[in-house]
Amino acid sequence: MTALPDPDIQAEFYSGVAPKRLFAFLIDSVLIFAMAAVIVPFTAFVGLLVWPALYLTVGFVYRVATLANGSATLGMRFCGIELREYSGARLDGGSALLHTVGYTVSMAVPVLQIISILLMLTTARGQGLSDHMLGTVMLKRRA
Question: Which of 44, 75, 83, 101 is close enough to 24 for a disulfide, judged by CB 3.0 to 4.6 Å?
């Protein structure tokens, strides 16, 4: 038994979450880009030479920190969605780290990202690949 809302009885928690996830992803991408750009001068501009690694590192730290402290990134908060564990609890530091690792791996492997997107669009709870593996789900934020 799960403490998560049933998608058949309480569909309002899941309706419209997929487009909100996309918009949240775009917002987070812009924020991560801006943070990485601010860091570059502090690296004596060496950060430009290793931009992909800098962007990936900033994004990883950003996702873990924001998910662990509110169960949503800033983009997710803006869009009114949040991640919840199978028990219905908010993500803690460990589950935020695991979710971010899963997210990063699926973003790095295009086939996994396509599978994740298809799962988000076709499953009752709209879970991506890492959500299925960890038992997490994206919900509209509760009032």
Answer: 75
pLDDT recorded at residue 6: 85
CB neighbourhood size of 53 (10 A)? 10
Nearest 5°: the CA angle 69, 75, 107 is 95
44-54: pLDDT as tens digits: 999 999 999 99
3-state DSSP assignment of residue 140: strand
pLDDT over 60 at 83, yes or no: yes
**Contacts of residue 18, Cβ cutoff 8 Å, sequence gap at least 6:** 120, 121, 126
Amino acid at 20: K
Query: How many angstroms separate the Cα of 29 from the Cα of each of 5, 25, 63, 109, 127?
Result: 29, 6, 11, 18, 20
